Amino acid sequence: MRISEAGLPSRAGRRFLLALLGLVMAGAGPAAALDAAVRTPVPATAGYRNAREAMRTGMRDYNAGDKEGAARALEYAAGQGHALALWKLGRMYAEGDGVPHDDLKAFEFFSKIADENADEGPEAPNAGVVASAFTALGRYFLDGIKGSYVRPNVERAYDMFNYAATYYGDPNAQYNLARLYLDGTGVTQDPRQAARWFNLAAEKGHPAAQALLGQLLINGQGVTVQRARGLAWLTLARDAAEGPKDQWIVTLQEQAMAAANERDRAEAQSQVDGFYRRSAKGR
């Protein structure tokens, strides 16, 4: 099952979508609260010649283990609108990585990226950062942030995932969009659409998407039953699984392998080998 990437929005449709996203951002809370710099004031002059130098210093300090120093340098670069600095700070606050865990602060950094860079095309240098920011916002809108103005809003989550998935082709967004369709969260439950989006993410090496696509193929849920291909996707997902958080992938693959016949196992392994050969040639 091969499915082509979703088409890009028309120019008129894109203008409408960007306007919608602007309304979504503006409606999240006080306008000033969307500017992460308001919550993390940085002196106008901090010993850096420009945002790029501050960004380099921040990443050097981060890699050296000085995350407090990294945060200071990154905040200066973020205050100058440096998208990658905003993204890195968002990830640090979201994970409590060297700074206090603060989902609202992370949300605000990601919001600033979306507000200032949403009109950048998929080939722009910052496209990956922008797509990741929209995806992160989608996850925050999906669950909300307890004790803050960010309330659960599935419609907004869908908008964030759909924009990053269709316009930027972001695999994490495609996976999250597929989950909405699979579970019927905020949309009509549609396993066929779920399989479509899982496939797009799976082709880009997204392990969770590969695992769930494999399960759909084995069960014939939204797609024609293809047990060998489903087992192949599950095996690729298991090979890429990392640590306890991905144990569910390992369990799914082991269960599918145990239930498969020898012919399906052999065919699945042949498909896995072919996938790795194609990947090696593409490097």
From TrEMBL:
The keyword Transit peptide does not apply. Residues 261-283 are annotated as: Disordered. Keywords: Signal. The keyword Nucleotide-binding does not apply. Residues 1-33 form the signal peptide. Transmembrane segments: none annotated. One of its GO terms (biological process) is ERAD pathway. InterPro entries: Sel1-like, Sel1_AlgK, TPR-like_helical_dom_sf. Pfam families: Sel1 (PF08238). It comes from the Bacteria. SMART domains: SEL1. This is Exopolysaccharide biosynthesis protein. It comes from Methylobacterium frigidaeris.
